[in-house]
Amino acid sequence: MTAPSAEAEQCIYIVDDDEALRDSLVWLLEASGHRVRAWESAESFLRDCLPAMTGCLVLDVRMPGMSGLELFEELKRRHFTLPVIFITGHGDVPMAVSAVKKGAVDFIEKPFSERDMLNLIAECLAAEQQNRDKRQLEAETARRLTHLTQREREVLDLIIAGKLNKQIADVLGISIKTVEVHRARVMEKMEANSLAELVQNVLAAPGGGGR
């Protein structure tokens, strides 16, 4: 089964109080074919940010008012899932390292090369797309599980437990032929092309690893 691809187009969100740096980043990223939005403060970004945002966040560590680190902590409290890249001056490297330990993707030190920034953003966008597809697949698998009958779910749980058809038949008190029918229906409803795919997807889904 092919993992669902995200429909939302990724965007790079920049939060930096330095207008010259902000404008140069917007120009660089747009010239490279990216969608870009920019804010001059953490507070203004917070007013506009939405859980459905996709892409990555480029965030200055030190800003007037709410700092980049404070914004990062607030976004974590809101379960904001975008990968975060910090822009840091030399003196702020220890703070940026601390942020990475708390879940930021990486930091880049000023002055940085255009190539380094573009490479880092490309890595973040690829990882964010992969993680979003993974979450969508997990949600879809969980939805498919709700369409199984009670008996199909019992068969599935025993498949996940590594039981063979004969063992499943013995446990449930049904014929091997009936197990085979239920197993085929489970594969069809779960849209799995192989037993390995079935097990992998179900175990990854919320509440999927047996009841």
Automatic annotation (TrEMBL):
UniProt xrefs under InterPro entries: CheY-like_superfamily, Sig_transdc_resp-reg_C-effctor, Sig_transdc_resp-reg_receiver, Tscrpt_reg_LuxR_C, WH-like_DNA-bd_sf
Keywords assigned by UniProt, alphabetized: DNA-binding, Phosphoprotein, Transcription, Transcription regulation, Two-component regulatory system
Query: Which species does the entry assign this protein to?
Result: Aromatoleum tolulyticum
MF terms per GO, please?
A: DNA binding
Under PROSITE patterns, the record lists:
HTH_LUXR_1, HTH_LUXR_2, RESPONSE_REGULATORY
UniProt entry tagged with the keyword Transcription: yes
Supply the Gene3D superfamilies for this chain.
3.40.50.2300, Winged helix-like DNA-binding domain superfamily/Winged helix DNA-binding domain (1.10.10.10)
Q: Which GO terms describe its biological process?
A: phosphorelay signal transduction system; regulation of DNA-templated transcription
Q: According to the UniProt entry, which residues carry 4-aspartylphosphate?
A: 60
Q: Name the PANTHER family for this protein.
A: DNA-BINDING TRANSCRIPTIONAL ACTIVATOR DEVR_DOSR
Protein name per its UniProtKB record:
Two component transcriptional regulator, LuxR family
Question: Residue ranges of the Response regulatory domain?
Answer: 11-125
Task: Please give the Pfam families that the UniProt record associates with this protein.
Answer: GerE, Response_reg
Question: Is Phosphoprotein among the key words of this record?
Answer: yes
Q: Start and end of every HTH luxR-type domain? A: 141-207
